[in-house]
Design a protein that fits this description.
There is one protein chain. With 581 residues, this protein is α/β, with parallel strands linked by helices. The protein folds into two domains: 9-73 and 220-579, Glycosidases (TIM Barrel, Alpha-Beta Barrel), CATH 3.20.20.80; 84-211, Sandwich (Immunoglobulin-like). The chain is 24% helix and 18% strand. It has helices at residues 219-225, 276-286, 300-312, 352-358, 368-384, 404-411, 434-440, 449-465, 473-485, 507-518, 520-535, 568-579; strands at 39-43, 47-48, 53-54, 59-62, 66-68, 116-121, 144-151, 154-161, 166-173, 176-182, 187-195, 203-208, 230-232, 289-294, 338-342, 392-397, 418-425, 489-496, 542-543. The strands form five sheets. The chain has an eight-stranded parallel β-sheet. β16 (392-397), α6 and β17 form a beta-alpha-beta unit. α11 packs parallel to α12 (568-579). It starts with 38 loop residues before the first strand and ends with a helix.
Length: 581
Amino acid sequence: MKKPFFLSAKTLAAALLLAAPHFALAQPSEPKQPYTGDLSYSTRTSSTTSVQTMAARAVVTAPRVQTNLESVTYWGTSFPFADLMKQADTRWTSSGGTVPLNANGWPTALPNGQRATTIVVADAWRPAGKQYNPTTVVGVMQAGDYRLDWTGQGDVSLEKRGGTGSVTLKSTGTRTKTYTLSGSVEGIFCHVNSINSTTDYPRGIKVWQPGQVGNLFHSTFASDLINFPVVRFMDWGNTNNSGITNFSQRRLPSQRTQGLNQSFDRFVAAGPGVAYEYMVQLANQSNADLWICIPHLATQDFRDKLAKLIRYGSDGVNPYSSAQTNPVWAPLKAERRVWVEYSNEVWNPQFAAHHWLNSQSIAGTTNLAEKIGSKARNCWTSFATHFPDSRLVRVLSGQFANAWFLEAALATGYDPDILAVQSYFYQDMSGNKIEDYIWNNNLHNASDRGVALTQTFDQLSRRLDTYYSTSNDNWKRNVAAANNLGIPLVAYEGGPHIDAAGRQGTASFVTFIHDLHRDNRMGDLVHKNMQKWMDGGGKTPSVFSNSARWHNGECWGHKEFLTQTNASKYNRAIDWIFARP
């Protein structure tokens, strides 16, 4: 997939489309009550096909829809944790020098007596060189009272940065302060101003969002996910370009922030993602299946320990090896399943996994597709040791625009429960991107913006009409690969793959892309795309992502920020979920 706003990687995952008529505008509705049902599509039985021999397993149940999550970063706008410190920057800085930290990331001393500072939420302060003149998050933070709590001896404070609004100290108490945020604020910084004990230094600092004190996840974030029976945690795991090999390298739930040290370069290894314990707890709270992506370098020991953590829980450091009466961190609910996928888009040369795996020699394999299948089977085997078939979904992912990846992997005898490709829309049957159509026809500079938008939507709708039809050879072959095995073909990501990649310096083009995504007709196309996927033989369409920050023409979030209510893409996706019988 494309990494929420770092890489415009979907180009290679191209979708093949054709022509279609104009469509009527439907107004987005307000989200409804959570959807709770699953759909059973097929029964898995012992059978021999021309592709492979299948193992006897339980009923394959493909849920109605699944969603992906935005990466947890200090510049993100999904605000998943009730405590904003959990998405803060991993660094502390000081004018006095390097800030010494304890194992969980809290300052233990102030260099030369100068305060230590970390970014809690911000926009313009992303790492140097890691931005395309990003648009601002001004105005997306909730107004109201933010409570600052900490333990230890010393003083801690918050400071507003940027924007025309204010963050005003409202009240103080013993190791607690309340700040009122009003107006548009671009960021919040946290300062440790003094440390009065070498052993009892300020730590456990929390920045509670309005009305969220005591919660683990923001209540709106968690309730949104109740609409999705499966949640894919690829970005929470910092999967793309991951440098994680051993289980000891993972992030622990006790660490100060779950914010990611992300790699924008496939030649630079990315750091650990969010603690797996938090992924499990979010799946439990949302009553969702947990779709996990195993880092491409992960050892067998890593895979085995992760399987134990999800099945039995953990003490915060080590996974349990059996069910516990009172686990410190609870396992995945017994009624929920774990979906296991090897890495993410290993077919995609924009990601490190592609190049690493291509360079490996694996017995019994002759090409990349077979190597992907081999690595995926290793992951499934580790989880099958701890999960019964009824709770394990073995995912084999391929490429929408190149059915060979699934065909070649399956030909060597790999035995998945689910096949998965993307369900993005933006190209025509010849591989021409809608962005090029806009650019070449100078629609972004048209004097009549309304006419230009209508012309673009007509093109998109026509292309989408044959995207999932038998005239699309790759789609037909991917569906056939699943049907031959009697298993579902699901989407691992999906939605409009329309961005300003390579043209971010042209403000009018960026604005036009944003206008497209905000138009109610884009929501209609999201709805149409999900239905066309199903009508064409797919199961479980995908939303990538449910809520994520838009910037400079990259608009992956179906909501732009957590509390947005006028999000056509998101609302029409919810409409689709409840419109099906």
